[in-house]
Amino acid sequence: MADQPLSIDIERPLLLKANDLVLLTQEDGDIPGGIPGFGLFYRDTCALAVYRLRLHGTVPLLLMSSDSEGIAAQIGLTNSHLSAANGDDIADHTLSLRRTLLVLDDGPVFVDTIAIRDHSTAAVTLPISLDLATTFQSMFVLRGAPVGKRGRLQAPVWDGAALRFAYEGADGVLRTLLVDFSLPPIVAPCTTERSTAHFELVLAPQESRTLIVTFRVDERPVGDTPPASSRALRDEAAMRQAKEEAAAALLDGYARARTPSRDVGRLLARSLADLALLEVRRGSHRFTAAGMPWFVGLFGRDSLLPTIQCLAFNPDLGGRTTRALAHWQGTRDDDDTREEPGKILHELRVGELAHLHEVTQTPSYAAADSTLLFLIAIARHVTWTGDLGLFTTLRPNVDRALAWLERRSADNEAGYVTYDGLAEGDQPVNQSWRDSGTGVLRADGSYPTPPLALVEVQGYAYQARRLIAVLLRRVGEDAAAERLDAAASALQARFLADFWIETEGSYCLALEQGGRQVTSVTSNAAQVLWTGIAAPGHARRIAERVMRPDMFSGWGVRTLSSEHARFDPLAYQQGSVWAFDNALIVSGLRRYGEDAVALRIAAATLDAADGCRLGRLPEFIAGHQREPGDGPIHTPRADPLQAWSAAALPFMVTELLGLEADGFAKRLHVRRPLLLDGVDQLELHDVRVAGVVVSLAFTRGASGVQARIVGGGDGLELVVEQDVA
After folding, report:
1. Which residues contact 703 (CB under 8 A, 6 or more apart)?
2. Residue 37: per-residue pLDDT
3. In terms of DSSP bridges, do strands 186-189 and 194-203 run parallel, antiparallel, or are they unpaired?
4. What percent of the chain has pLDDT over 70?
5. What is the CATH number of domain 14-250?
6. N or C: the chain end with fewer CB closer than 10 Å?
7. Which CATH architecture has domain 256-657?
C-alpha cells in the first residue's frame, strides 16, 4: 500500500453489507458517481456506480439517516420548492419521503423502498427520476491501479420487466445488474453505461405511495443464460420480514455484554454487530473479512487478529477463518506473489484483475507475520474450546507452517524471521502490519536496508512456538514440543539483547541488514508485550515510555513518536492511532501487571469510539494531541469499518476482566479482574468455554472487582485470582 490517501475521505457514509454485497452511499441514500468508495460492490467489482433520486430534477432535502442495523438504513427526506408536472407549485416541506435501504445475501439483492406522502391540502402530480450507471469497474482501478485488459460493456436494456446492465469480462465472467421497479417506469436507455427511470406519482392530500426498487447482482460464465428477472420484493411487508430474518441471524453464536453503563454497553454491541457483519461465506469457506469498503476479502493477519481478539465472544470465528486460510497455504516459491511452501496468504482477491493475474493478490503472500498468527489462532482456539478437532484437522497445515518458520529462522544468522523489503518504485514493500511504504523508517526518516526483522514479528514467532508446544505435549509429542520450547527460549535470549534500546527504555522497531537497530520509537515495542517475549524489567520501562506525551495522544498510543523526523498524525503509520494495536498493548500490559497504564489506554480508546459516528472505530484515527473539548479526528486514508478495530474494545474488556480459559480442564480463570472507571457492573451472557455456555457477572466492591457465575456453567470451574502472579 502506498502511504497516500485513496479517496476514502467520505463524509458520514451509510455503510451496509450482506455477505459479499456491500453498499456505500451518501447520507441521503444516493451514490453520487465520481467518488471512489461510493457504490454497490460485489466480489471486488463496483456493480452500481451512480444511483440518484430526484424530485422533478431537484435533490431532496435530508432530515435524518441511520445505518446502525448494518444491513439496512433509514433515511428521512423532504422537498424543496418545486413545480409539479401539471404546472402547480409544491411548497417546501409538504412532501415527506421515507427511504429504506436493505441489502440481502439471498440474490444477492439491494432493495430501496421509497415511501412518499403528500401533506398538502391539494393533490400533486410528482415527477420522480432515478439515474443509474455502472461500468462494472474493478475495486483496484477505483483505487488507482491501471485499467488493464477489459471485456465488453453492454448498453443498458429495458426489456419491459427489468432494466439490465451487463458486462462480459475479459476473465470470462458475465456480470449482470438487474433493476426491477414495483411501479411502471418510463425508461430512457442510453448507448453507454447510463440510464434513467422516470415515474409520475399522483398523490391526493395525505395519500402515500411507495416505490420499491430491487437490484440483483449476478455472476456466471460468459455464454450462460443470465437471470430473467430480479426477483423483486414488491411490497413493504415482504421487505420488513426479510430484514427481520436477516437481522435475527446476524449475531447467532455471539456472547452478549450487559451493563448499566449505557455508553460501554452501546459501544460493545456496536463492535460485535460490526464483527458479525464482516463475516463472509464463499462456497465451503467462511471467514472474517478485513474491512469495508475496500477489504471485503480473505486476509491473513487482518482476518486472524480479530478472531484471536474475540475468542470470548465467539470462538467459532477463529476455527472458520483458519480453515479457509489453510486451503490457500503456500506450496511453492513464487517471487511475484511471494508465495513460499507453508506460508499463509496476506490477501486474496476474486475480481476481474485477479482472475487475469493483473494484480498479485491471487493470492498474495507478502506478509511475514500471517503464518505465525495462523499458528497462534489455532492454538488459542483449541485451548479455549478444549477441542483438539481443529488442530487435528489442520495438523498437516500446522506442520507446514512450522517448517516455514524454521526455514525462515535458519535463513537469518541470528534466527529471526525477516523479509526482503524489495522496493516498488522508490518505496519498500513492507510485510508486517506496518505495510505502507513509510511504515518502517529509521530515526532520521530514511529507509532501512533489508532484510528487516520487525520487533513484533519476533514476538509472534516466540508465542507461536510456545503455544503449539503445549498442544504437541497434549497429543504425546513431547520431543517435538521440547524442540519448539528450546527454539523459543533461544529466540527470547537473542531478542532481549539485540532489540533493547537502553537510552529509550524501549525495544527498537526492527533490525536491518547487519543486525543494526532501527531505533525509531513506535507502538510495536509495546505490542510485543502481548506475545510474552519481553523481560519483566523491560515491560515496566515500556509501560512508562508509551505514556509520555510524544507517544500517548490522549486517544491512544501513537504508531510513531511525535518527536520522530517523519511524524505525521494523519499518515497511515507515521503517528496515527490504531485501535487494534492499542488493544494488543492493553493485553500485554495486563500480562506484565501494568494495570494502571492498561486502564488508561482502554479508557482513551473507549472515549475515541464514543466520539465516532455510531460508536464505530475506523481503521485508525489521527495522532493529534487530545485537547479539552476535542473529538477524535478521522483521516482521509482510514477505512470506515475494519474488523480488527471492531474487535479492539471487546478484546480490551475481556483482557481487563482477566478471562483466560483452559478448555481441556473445563476451567475459566479470571485473573485480577478490572472494570473501567464509571463501570461498576458488567455481565457477559452466553460465553462458550469448552462447549459449556456460561453467564458471568463482574461487580466492583470495596475489595476490588468480584466475579461469579450467574447462569449456566454446568461442569465449568471458575477460578478467580486477585493477586499478581
Report:
1. none
2. 86
3. antiparallel
4. 96
5. 2.70.98.40
6. C
7. Alpha/alpha barrel (1.50)
